Amino acid sequence: MSAVEGLQRALESVILNPKYADYLAVLKSARNGAVYGAKVRFSHALVMVFLFRNGTLREKLGHVFRATRTHATNLAKYATVYKLTMLALKHLGSEPGKEGKFDTFFAGLLGGYLVFGRRSKRGNISSVSKQIVIFVFARVVLSLALLSIQPQVGIVKSSNLRNRISYNAWPAFAALSWGSVMWLFRWYPETIQTGLKSSMDYIYVQSDHWDSLRTFLTSSESPV
């Protein structure tokens, strides 16, 4: 047996030992968060930056890699905080070794605050963090709407009313979301997230202006 094979077997004996499973799950969760964040953000940032952002090739690539690093790092940090908190609550709760009903909420609360809720030294919140939180918030709203009509836990008890709400919830949510964002963009654009504001300006404002056939067919400007 070579030294490499011996080391591999020794590591596998530790990794496969149930005694260390909870702690190793923290590392695996951080790894998965980093990989997922990098995959999702790299492709998204690459397309958005090269389509809509001005600057040199070096500047564009720098923005792509910074956004990718931030997304991957944030998800890895959050996964680590969440898993460690869950592990601590599991062993420090009223019934040691058993997960409490609200452990996931408190672990998520702490992770959300430490990773996505903190400001930089300049007092800013990164656009990547804002996008992730907004993405999660939208899904939470939809999930709570669905939960409200569940027979066991929902606040709506009438089956007929539940069916009507279930059928009309998404159209109402979509209409209210778009109506609200267009109103905000028209009268309070400074309140809208920068990336969304740039995209909307490109579609709805710059489309009102042209001075030739070329600028009519191909816009002379693009979102920054």
UniProtKB/TrEMBL annotation:
Plastid in keyword set: no
Keywords noted in UniProt: Membrane, Transmembrane, Transmembrane helix
Transmembrane segments: 128-149, 169-188
Highest taxon of the lineage: Eukaryota
Pfam families reported for this sequence: Tim17
InterPro entries, per the entry: Pmp4
GO CC annotations on file: peroxisomal membrane
Signal peptide (UniProt feature, chain positions): none
PANTHER family per record: PEROXISOMAL MEMBRANE PROTEIN 4 (PTHR15460:SF3)
Stated name of the protein: Peroxisomal membrane protein 4
Organism of this sequence: Oidiodendron maius (strain Zn)
